[in-house]
Design brief:
- By secondary structure, this protein is an alpha/beta fold.
- It has a single domain, classed as TIM Barrel (Alpha-Beta Barrel).
- The chain is built from twelve helices and eight strands.
- It has an eight-stranded parallel barrel, surrounded by six helices.
- Strand 1 (about 15-20), helix 2 (about 40-50) and strand 2 form a beta-alpha-beta unit.
- Helix 2 (about 40-50) packs parallel to helix 4 (about 70-85) and helix 2 (about 40-50) crosses helix 12.
- The longest helix has 22 residues, at about 250-270.
- The chain starts with a helix and ends with a helix.
- The relative contact order is 0.15.
Length: about 280
């Protein structure tokens, strides 16, 4: 999926919502546990309920890898279901890969050839040769970790060099030598608030994948105030606040309500910024 297609979907659906499929078999409603594949059954119901209100889905690979072969099967079935029934949805594998060149090339082959996903989160710590193997696929995206929403982000990402440049700023500046805004996005946590303005000074055109709205306390209004650009430039993820909003048999209906609430807030922001 190319940049223009993403922008068109945002405008058409008046939404830049990504639903995170962080599906934990220990947290899904009890009545699904009798299903042959409880994780996929949960995901399918969530997807059907929320698809009208979002433009992307982000399965977190850790929640599938922990289930061994069954977990991978649930992940593959989820991806196939999205592709067959909701082909307009942007599918992000939240895997945070990144290793020496040969290893990254194998990760890229797995996610972009075998699974045919749209995007993959990648850790930049090992530098250019650990990232560029993911950039060799037309229509595929690298989403590079820049400034995350967790407490530990302050341990490294905000440290400064002798010139006063913070590490996340160096990641943004350096990585733009590897690919442009049509191939690369950045992960920026919603809890970082006004730091979005600093990010936009360095990367004004790139899309930002923004986790942390909802359960982690990030403000959608603040993210949009500092981070939205002329094309929207944001894909805001919500996971627990949508998929675990109810633990009962009505879980999908409640997830739809929560997704619609966010979509309506997003539509307001898009109108306010003159994007729709």
């Amino acid at each position: 999926m190319n940049r223009q297609e993403i922008i068109q979907n945002i405008r058409r659906k008046a939404s830049f919502l990504c639903v995170g499929l962080d599906t934990d078999v220990k947290k899904i409603p009890a009545h699904l546990l009798s299903e042959d594949d409880p994780v996929f059954a949960f995901n399918k119901a969530i997807i059907d309920a929320t698809a009208p209100y979002c433009i992307a889905y982000k399965p977190n690979l850790a929640f599938y890898e922990c289930g061994g072969l069954k977990g991978w099967a649930a992940f593959e079935k989820t991806v196939c279901y999205l592709k067959e029934n909701y082909p307009e949805q942007f599918i992000i594998a939240d895997a945070k890969r990144g290793d020496i060149g040969n290893t990254s090339a194998m990760y890229a082959r797995s996610f972009f050839e075998e699974m045919d996903l749209d995007a993959l989160t990648v850790a930049p710590y090992m530098g250019e040769d650990s990232v560029t193997p993911f950039l060799g696929y037309d229509g595929k995206w690298v989403i590079l970790l820049a400034l995350t929403s967790n407490k530990g982000s302050h341990d490294f990402q905000l440290t400064e060099d002798k010139a006063g440049e913070r590490l996340f700023e160096k990641v943004l500046r350096t990585s733009q030598q590897w690919a442009g805004a049509d191939r690369m996005m950045y992960v920026v946590g919603a809890t970082q608030g006004s730091l979005f303005a600093d990010i936009r000074r360095i990367a004004p055109d790139h899309f930002l994948l923004v986790p942390g709205v909802g359960a982690q306390g990030g403000s959608l209004e603040e993210v949009c105030r500092y981070g939205m650009n002329a094309d929207c430039g944001l894909i805001v993820n919500s996971s627990r606040g949508i998929i675990y909003a109810s633990g009962g048999t009505d879980f999908a209906d409640v997830a739809a309500v929560k997704a619609k609430e966010l979509q309506e807030q997003m539509a307001g922001q898009l109108r306010q910024h003159g994007i729709i």
